[in-house]
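(Protein data)
===
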Amino acid sequence: MYRFLLSRQWVILTLVAVLLIPTMIRLGFWQMHRYEERTARNDLVARALEASPVPVESLTAPGRKITTRERYRTVTAEGRFDTDREVVVRRRTDSDDNIGYHVLTPFVLADGKVLLVNRGWIPADGPSQTRFPKIPAPPRGEITVTGRLMPDETTEASGIKDLEGLPDRQVMLIDSAQQAERLDARVLGGYVVLKEPEPKGDTPEPIGKPGNENAALNFAYAIQWWLFAAAVPVGWWFLVRRERREREAAESAGDTEPAEAEPAAV
């Protein structure tokens, strides 16, 4: 009755179905894992943003790496901006995906340590991007800054290559170790995205808060893959039943055909 399942076509179809089921189940678990990761990341970011501000030196020090739990924490620092030694970070985009720079300004603390402050985004000055752009000045004198603490940037995490031979005072990545060597100073690990004081005239353009990752989409994909996995055996059985019915109908039609008349005797 089901002898046709041993045919080459049906053996291949069955093997494909058998392989698809565990593959789709694994893809569903992978999407669920991504959902859990993104949900945890969103919760961690939300807690960091809601936490009360703390002095920056309570979370970082020269040569120290910023941990995942410290990332996005609001910190404060007292000191003064050193605009003579600020640099710009190339290939950065604004909220409308326009290419320009991030302005990275050393902020000198009372004890001489340096905090790197990302003051925001400015447009690129010309197509070549070889000349140092005009940068709006920050407040002068001793002030208090507030911002979100961030870890040093790496090529692995950002996908941006740390190119050499760049124009003077231009960098590709924000790296406190590199800046410590350039400034010949004790630079605190990581950097701060400036929140306050806000720039005059909205320039440099402030960097917005980190958005939530769409964890719900991964959850939906996981359910989708599992439904696909469940549909494979159902679809296979439907095809088998249809094939059987068609073969039975063909056999029945062959049995009911009238016998061919014998030729009349001469």
